[in-house]
């Protein structure tokens, strides 16, 4: 009887391990698809796409109030959520008000690019996020932004 129980426990452990592996594979595939889409939209390689996504979304989260940042993150690929959680730009900081120029300047400084390139990358990230997130969530995010920052979303690449 003990052998039967042990075998049953081993089977359950194997099933759980396979489920976790499939889940991690899906997380990786979703993340890779997001980065691939962003890389195509923004004409960048995958590493540049990841840096741009983290920078832009981290700065965006500094601009969002209430639970909106968490709502947006919930619809992003899990691996991207993990990177944002570790983003030092917004950890423990309250949301603040800044407009388009401040947003572009923060991304420009973070990525070490000029303002024109920063704006191009911001638009690319916003386009990739639009492909990933529900229209209702995009409208909620845009609703918290000043008009000049909304323009970056509306005129995304």
UniProtKB/TrEMBL annotation:
Domain of life: Bacteria
Region described as Disordered: spans on this chain: 1-26
Annotated protein name in UniProt: DUF2267 domain-containing protein
